[in-house]
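Team,

Forwarding the record for the chain on the shared tracking sheet. I've put the sequence and predicted structure together so nobody has to dig through attachments.
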Amino acid sequence: MSPKDALKIALERSLDLVEVAPNAIPPVCRIMDYGKFKYESSKKEREARKNQKIINIKEVKLRPNIEDHDFNTKKRNAIRFLENGDKVKVTIMFRGREITHPELGKQLCDRLADEIKDLAKIEKEAKVEGRNMIMILTPIIS
């Protein structure tokens, strides 16, 4: 159909002539109420945005020579964060000469990951960045 005829039909029905596929040969157009189409598409987009889950990153900070009770408290916090669907960033902070023994921090990260392996998996392995060692855990979706 020629563009003039399509435009004439659209005006008779008091609708809009909308180009759907401009790169097609010949270009494809559709007769529709464009305002209603835009409204419905924005409504679908809002609904999709409302249903999506926002994942936050929560941080648990530890020191290499942490006591068992303090470690268990930090572990409980990490478990709570994971159960809420958040990622957990485990930071081991080294002060002074502690940085000369990064294997202690690695052992601590591995211990934490091992104790909560049923709730989380390691997204990013433990790695030294400056005076900190960082590991990221993500919740296992079940």
